[in-house]
C-alpha cells in the first residue's frame, strides 16, 4: 500500500489541489476528491489537469501529518476547502463515539459508515412504506409460488442446526424494568425478579 501526497494542477489557470491518497497502484488515475476540484474538472475537462505525486509516505499517520503541513486553503491559489490532516475513513471513524455507532447501527466496518445510520426525512419514510405496501398480494414477486420440496428440506435442515444449545439464544430470556429491556441467562431470572424486573419485554 502506498500512502501518497499528490498535487493536481489546472493547466489553464494554474490553480491546484493538494491531497492524500492510499493506493496499491500509483498510476490508478485518481485525480482528487475535493468538491471544488471536481467542479473545475467538469468545467475545464480532465485533459487540462496534471497530477504529480509529491511524496510517498511510510505510514498513514505520516501522510496525514504531511498533508496538514502542505495544505493551506486559499481561494485564489487552490481548490482546497479545508486544512489538511483530516478526512479519510480512519479519521472519520475516530470521531464517532461508541454510543453514536450504536445509534446508527455501525458495526465497525469502515465502508459502512456512509451506508448505515442514514436519517430519512418523513417524506422518504412514507415513500418506503408505500413501496412496501404495493408489493403485497399479486404485486409481490413471490405471490402464488411455492417452495420446492428440495428447498423445504434445506430450510428444515438449516433450522434444525439452530435448535437447542446450537441456538445463540439458548438458555436466555428477556426481562423488563421501567421500559428498559435486558437479555439475561434464565438461571439469573430469579435474582432479577427479586430486584423488581419482570419477565418478557416491551
Describe the structure.
This protein has 202 residues and is of the alpha+beta class. The chain folds into 3 domains: 83 residues, GIY-YIG endonuclease, CATH 3.40.1440; 50 residues, no CATH class; 38 residues, no CATH class. The strands form 2 sheets. It has a 3-stranded antiparallel β-sheet. Strands 5-4-6 form a 3-stranded antiparallel β-sheet. A hairpin with a 2-residue loop joins β4 and β5.
Question: What structural keywords apply?
Answer:
202 residues; alpha+beta; GIY-YIG endonuclease; 3 domains; 7 helices
Q: Tell me the number of helical segments per DSSP (H or I, 4 or more residues long).
A: 7
Strand percentage, roughly? Answer: 15-25%
Under the CATH scheme, the architecture of the largest domain is 3-Layer(aba) Sandwich
How does the major sheet shape up? 3 strands, antiparallel
Q: Please state the structural category.
A: alpha+beta
H and E string: EEHEHHHHHEEHE
- Overall pLDDT: 77
Radius of gyration: 27 Å
Topology:
Elements: E1 2-10, E2 16-23, H1 35-44, E3 49-57, H2 60-70, H3 88-95, H4 98-104, H5 122-134, H6 149-160, E4 172-177, E5 180-185, H7 189-194, E6 198-199
Antiparallel strand pairs: 1-2, 1-3, 4-5, 4-6
Short structural summary:
The chain is α+β, with helices and mostly antiparallel strands and 202 residues long.
Amino acid at each position: 500500500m502506498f500512502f501518497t501526497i499528490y498535487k493536481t494542477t489546472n493547466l489553464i489557470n494554474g490553480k491546484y489541489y493538494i491531497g492524500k491518497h492510499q493506493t496499491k497502484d500509483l498510476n490508478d488515475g485518481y485525480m482528487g476528491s475535493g468538491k471544488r476540484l471536481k467542479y473545475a474538472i467538469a468545467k475545464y475537462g480532465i485533459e487540462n489537469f496534471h497530477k504529480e505525486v509529491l511524496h510517498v509516505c511510510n505510514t498513514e499517520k505520516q501522510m496525514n501529518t504531511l498533508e496538514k503541513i502542505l495544505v493551506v486553503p486559499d481561494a485564489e491559489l487552490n481548490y482546497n476547502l479545508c486544512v489538511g490532516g483530516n478526512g479519510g475513513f480512519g479519521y472519520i471513524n475516530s470521531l464517532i463515539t461508541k454510543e453514536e455507532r450504536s445509534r446508527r447501527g455501525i458495526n465497525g466496518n469502515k465502508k459502512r459508515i456512509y451506508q448505515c445510520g442514514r436519517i430519512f426525512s418523513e417524506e422518504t419514510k412514507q415513500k418506503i412504506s408505500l413501496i412496501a405496501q404495493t408489493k403485497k398480494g399479486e404485486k409481490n414477486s413471490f405471490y402464488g409460488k411455492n417452495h420446492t420440496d428440495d428447498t423445504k428440506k434445506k430450510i428444515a435442515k438449516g433450522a434444525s442446526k439452530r435448535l437447542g444449545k446450537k441456538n445463540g439464544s439458548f438458555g436466555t430470556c428477556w426481562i423488563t424494568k421501567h421500559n428498559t429491556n435486558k437479555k439475561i441467562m434464565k438461571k439469573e431470572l430469579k435474582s432479577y425478579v427479586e430486584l423488581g424486573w419482570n419477565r418478557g419485554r416491551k
